[in-house]
Amino acid sequence: MFDLSRLRMPIVQAPMAGGPGSVALAVAVSRAGGLGTLAAGYKTPAQLAEQIAGVRAGTDAPFGVNVFVPQEVPHPDTIAPYHAELSAVAERREVTLPEPDQGDTDFWEEKIALLTESPVPVVSFTFGAPPSEAVEALRRAGSRVVVTVTTVAEAKEAEALGVDALCVQGPEAGGHRGTFDPYAEPDPTPLAALLAAVAAGTRLPLIATGGLATGADIAGVLNAGATAAQLGTAYLRTPEAGTHAAYQEALTRPEFDTTVVTRAFSGRCARGLRNRFIEEHDASAPVGYPLVNQLTKPLRAAAAAAGDAHGLSLWAGINYRKAERVPAGELTERLWADASAALHRDR
Fold first, then answer.
1. d(Cα 314, Cα 316) in Å, to the nearest integer?
2. How confident is the model over 213-267, as pLDDT tens digits?
3. In this structure, are 92 and 160 located in the same domain?
4. Are the C-beta atoms of residues 176 and 150 closer than 8 Å to each other?
5. Number of neighbouring beta carbons within 10 Å of residue 61
6. Which of 144, 217, 228, 275 could lock 212 by a disulfide, CB 3.0 to 4.6 Å apart?
7. Cβ neighbour number for residue 227 with a 10 Å cutoff
8. DSSP type of residue 35
9. Is 259 helix (H, G, I), strand (E, B) or coil?
10. Phi and psi of 3, rounded to 5°?
11. 89 and 33 share a domain?
């Protein structure tokens, strides 16, 4: 069974569902000595199986797959006003908004079946604690199971399931927060303090993530007790990433000068570059993933086709300006060289 502590470079590539995470990116990071990760989110089981096969064809190094834990929307009626509000946007974009599908589980059962029948070294979860039977089945199949947590209470709940490691996500992270309760306001405790608090209550290996962008950042979390550091935004501009051209350009454009946490695109709190869509719709966006995500999907697709970054979900962590146009393998190696130098200086 794969041992996280034996990675040649303790760097995990964040999964980044929705496009940026790609087979080429996962292969490049794993080949370099880190842990590449595929995002199962928003894919059909057949698409996921194809991507897993692609990684296996590209490298025999360990890699992971990240899965969204489905949660029921208890108040779907709250989506209707947002549907009405976005209808005007849909008309301008010349698209039709779908009716919310309350049965959408992102093919949860099928994906767990795929991953138990064709196991991968690491399976990680976000958006909640997976059912204990899923954890047990994956571990029996030979996978290490990791759960993303954002509070000490979540860490305790995940540990009780018998998982192998925790991914400790601070508020500085780009993209969706892994908060178990989507109705709760995300915990603002900075990553450094959150990592220390979680580490004090568990012996499980910890993967630290949230705004990490440099070798010094990686060294900092390793010195604080993490087994590995997870980075996502740092890889957004690499040639291997599937990041849309307008998205990549926005990471460097002066007008996109800050990140904010919003529910506007998906109904779940996520950090991204502030753009026009967020400014116009953040205040009225309801809690309600995946229903809100379904509503905005055609709007985002139309914006992508038009190359309009103001209509895209530009997920990014607080240090997005440090993302570079560098091959992913080279970036991973350089990050680890810089981290190793920093760790040596600290001794």
1. 6
2. 999 999 999 999 999 999 999 999 999 999 999 999 999 999 999 999 999 999 9
3. no
4. no
5. 19
6. 217
7. 19
8. B
9. strand
10. -115, 115
11. no
